[in-house]
């Protein structure tokens, strides 16, 4: 029997198993951690898009139909769309 499972079984036998409140607190912590990680990823994606667009010349921006004034808007909304689309496929990829 794995050590961590054995430890929990021992606690249950002694009547010291973790209460449901602990489990829900742990679950809330995990969901908060996931939320913070996604926010971090989204911020990185926005910054990557912003830097890539700022590196383009006015001529290159014109070629792709973007003005310098639109860079912030594109970085904010397109990065979010990309992250959302990528997160839909997380379960379809094998481990890295």
Automatic annotation (TrEMBL):
Disordered: annotated span: 1-20
YjiS-like domain segment(s): 37-72
Protein name as catalogued: DUF1127 domain-containing protein
Organism, scientific name: Tardiphaga alba
């Amino acid at each position: 029997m794995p050590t961590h499972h054995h430890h929990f079984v021992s606690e249950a036998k002694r009547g010291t198993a973790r209460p449901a409140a602990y489990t829900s607190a742990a679950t809330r912590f995990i969901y908060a951690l996931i939320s913070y990680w996604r926010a971090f990823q989204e911020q990185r994606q926005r910054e990557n898009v912003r830097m890539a667009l700022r590196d383009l010349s006015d001529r290159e921006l014109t070629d792709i139909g973007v003005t310098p004034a639109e860079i912030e808007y594109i970085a904010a909304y397109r990065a979010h769309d990309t992250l959302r689309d990528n997160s839909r496929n997380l379960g379809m990829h094998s481990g890295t």
